[in-house]
Amino acid sequence: MTAQPPEGARSVEQLKEAAASCRGCELWEHATQTVFGEGREGSKLMLVGEQPGDQEDLQGKPFVGPAGRLLEKALDEAGIDRSRVYVTNAVKHFRWTRRGKRRLHEKPNAGQVRACRPWLEAEIEVVRPGMLVLLGATAAQSVMGPAFRVSQQRGEVLRSPFGIPVVATVHPSSILRATDAESREAALASFISDLEVAGRGA
What we know:
There is one protein chain. The protein starts with 11 loop residues before the first helix and ends with a helix. It has one domain: Uracil-DNA Glycosylase, subunit E. By secondary structure, it is α/β, with parallel strands linked by helices. The protein has 8 helices and 7 strands; from the N terminus they run αβααβββαβααββαα.
């Protein structure tokens, strides 16, 4: 059965319960569980990532792995109160490929992103954030359309189809993949700067 967001949902909890049985694409077959967004309705910022990772899939919470820890640090450095932030992903199930004993992240395809979009739309409607922060290309294109390029409009406050301003930036996992400490520090500084822009605009 393909679950859809319940019409007139008034809370994140209602949406989360409905999403637990979503079969909108095939990703649920190999995922441990649906990983829904987390935070309060009325949060100032809504951060949208790509999809849950290995730790998120196991724990059932968004941004609890290494990228999540880096995000926490960056929010703190940007002076943004984590309790006033709602975090979610464009895709709610972990897409992965096995390499030995490890489950490695695999980018969700356009059909999977499209299948999950009603859930993201419902979250935005219920949370009513002041600003969307789009972390990486998948999240940015899910909201702004397939032609959107983070590299071209990163860190700018833009209008979104939802009537809520957005700031697009990189996904924190890309900072972790930097080849050396100097590159990582520079990438983190730019990321913090983008979050500061979003924090001021919300």
